[in-house]
Amino acid sequence: MRIDHVRECLRRFTYKPGWQFSLREPVAPDWHLWYLDVTFDVPDCNKPSGAAHIDMWRQLYVDELHDENHFWEWLFATVRICEDHEQREWFRIDGTRLHNPHADRAALDRIALWSPTGAPL
Question: What average pLDDT does range 37-65 have in this prediction?
C-alpha cells in the first residue's frame, strides 16, 4: 500500500467517540516506518473520579501492508491492543492489578513493536 491510501482509509474509519487516530511522519524522508498515534480520554484508573488522556502509538511499516484489507486487520489489532492495555489497567482483585501493563514489558512491546505481517520485530 501507499501512504496516501493509508491516509484515505483513516479518513473513512471511526471507532468510539473521542478516539483519534493520526499518522506521524517518519523521522527521515527515506524511512518506511510511520507511527500511528491513538489518543483518547478515559476515567483515571488510579483516581476514577478524574480523567486521563491516553496517547498510545504503534509502528507502521507501510511497505508491508499488502492491501486495504490487510490495513483494516492491522488497525483492528491496534484497537484491540489499546483496549487490552486499558483492561489491564482496570482489572483488579482486592484492589490489586492482576496484570499491570506498565510493569509487563512484553505487553508494552506488543504496542510499539509490531509489524503488519504479525511478526514481532
Answer: 89
In a domain? residue 28: yes
pLDDT confidence bin for 64, thresholds 50/70/90: confident
pTM of the model: 0.78
- Provide φ and ψ at 57, rounded to 5°: -145, 155
For residues 59-81, average pLDDT: 91
In a domain, 118, yes or no: no
User: What domain count does the chain have?
Assistant: 1
CA distances from 65 to 3, 37, 94, 117 (A): 10, 18, 43, 8
Which range of residues forms the domain containing residue 66? 3-112
